[in-house]
């Protein structure tokens, strides 16, 4: 799935978006995977990213850790 995602990000970048939105932990993914996607989008493809943090059903300590 990650290879497919990076391929799609690369193709989207050809359209010149001002930024892309990456949902934190989407589909049950690991938080580290979200950070990897964001980092690659910025470093490899040069596109600004916005991490969309889902707070529903997450304990406060987990949200605080994600924000830090």
Automatic annotation (TrEMBL):
Known pathway: One-carbon metabolism; tetrahydrofolate interconversion
SUPFAM superfamilies cross-referenced by the UniProt entry: FAD-linked oxidoreductase
Matching Pfam families: MTHFR
Entry keyword Membrane: no
GO molecular function: FAD binding; methylenetetrahydrofolate reductase [NAD(P)H] activity
Keywords: FAD, Flavoprotein, Oxidoreductase
GO biological-process terms attached to the record: methionine biosynthetic process; tetrahydrofolate interconversion
Needed co-factor(s): FAD
Gene Ontology cellular component annotations, sorted alphabetically: cytosol
Family: Belongs to the methylenetetrahydrofolate reductase family.
Protein name, entry field: Methylenetetrahydrofolate reductase (NAD(P)H)
UniProt organism field: Linnemannia exigua
